[in-house]
Design goal:
heterodimer, A: alpha/beta, Rossmann fold, 2 domains, 3-stranded antiparallel beta sheet, 35% helix, 21% strand, B: mainly alpha, ABC transporter involved in vitamin B12 uptake, BtuC, 13 helices, globular
Chain lengths: 233, 285
Amino acid sequence: MALLIADNVVPGYDRKAVAPAVSFSVEEGNFLCIVGANGTGKTTLIRTLTGLQKPLSGRVIFDKGFSKTQAGFVPQFTHSAKDFPASVREVVLSGCLSECRFRPFYSRVHKKRASENMQKLEIEDLSSSSFQELSGGQQQRVLLARALCSAQKMIFLDEPTANLDPNASENVYQLLERMCQEEKAVIMITHDIKGALKYATHVLSLSGENAFFGTQEEYAKSTLSKEGGENVY
Amino acid sequence: MFTDILSKLMTYFTYPFVRYAFIVGVLIALCSSLLGVPLVLKRYSYIGDGLSHVAFGAVSVATVMNMTGTVLLSAPVTVLCAVLLLRRGRRSNIKGDAAIAMVSVGSLAAGYLLMNRFGTSANLSGDVCTTLFGATSILTLQPIDVYMCIALSLVVLLLFVFYYHRIFLITFDEEFAQSVGIAVNSYNLLLAVITALVIVLAMNLVGSLLISALIIFPAVSAMRLFKSFLGVSICSGILGVVHSTLGLLVSILAGTPAGSTIVVVHLLGFLLCSVAGWVLRECVS
């Protein structure tokens, strides 16, 4: 059984579908890349998977005792409110909140996890800095660290490397690969096909009439990838 | 000079109504300034303003009906309106914005009309002025008002502390909170209910027109000085209590109306914090 199953899911807004129906499943240790040109409904699909909006039809099924509280989500980067007072540490720690249930404050385990994730993303020296005063790339890494705190079984990412320099991107990919080796699942939207294919185990392509879902090898062989590689990206 | 003021204050503090005023003032200031931080950051400041007018309408009705504890009517009515307004405000469309203005102006007008037609008091404009600007009402508190105020403040404080981290998350990033399975809507509802309760309480202190000042000034002043949510929350609480206490002291000594004196002290405090924040930033960079 898979952790997450999408059964003929049609993502869309206001009864208007933005992507064809997709069916796929994600298992522990899978690294799924969602690719497609702008406006093919990638972000709407990932928002549907995380439960931020309902699918127009079809079902998203969580299994193996997996619940939303064990997932992390890194939304598409937007510059956040300029005057919000929050330190990096506060933001990263808030990722642990889904586990707190009836506990009002964070435990030592949570604080340790937050520190470890800040180290992984090389932002530990920023921990008491103000989130709003960081650069776009730094903010992106803070949000990644927050998602890592809540991602006990699965992580959803919407273009996590869009604002990062090549070194930082590589670091993020390796981090995600390590998560897969720890039997966690990764679902990522990306435009960086070359970089992503190196690490992905599965690919979901939303370009074209019908969505394509298959392993990374199948995707590399299919004509879709050739077309995509030359024309769309 | 200083001993004169002190001895004068000591005399005042022998009166129970002055002590009541201070207990109630400090508690209300603490609650509203803490709550102000998430409200200002969520851009709900205007909802607080609208609710205060609703509370005015409810108090007018209670006065007309000769109810002893006006809180018994104004609290549930204001809570109900808070819940309705927040539902609308979430959609953040033009209608939602207009709805708040309509509810707020409507209850203000209806409240005054009722008091004018059915009010039994001889001094109508005095009554209305008291409800709007607080005037001396803080000094005429009955013990039951004080106990009610203490109880409600404690509930608000406990809820704020208990849900502090959740309040941070739903204020900072509602979508992330929702995606990890936190019941965002329930917490927004809780925030609306607490806001309504605080506004009903604060009416005693500064009157309904000036309540927003107690909620907004400390939070915005604290944001000039601190850059972390915890820092801003603590600083806002302290500023709220200090400014309101100062305002009360001045109003008692100088015989000025409590509500407007407190708000003016808050305004001066905000200017000071702005200057201090500017100096801090200049020194650092």
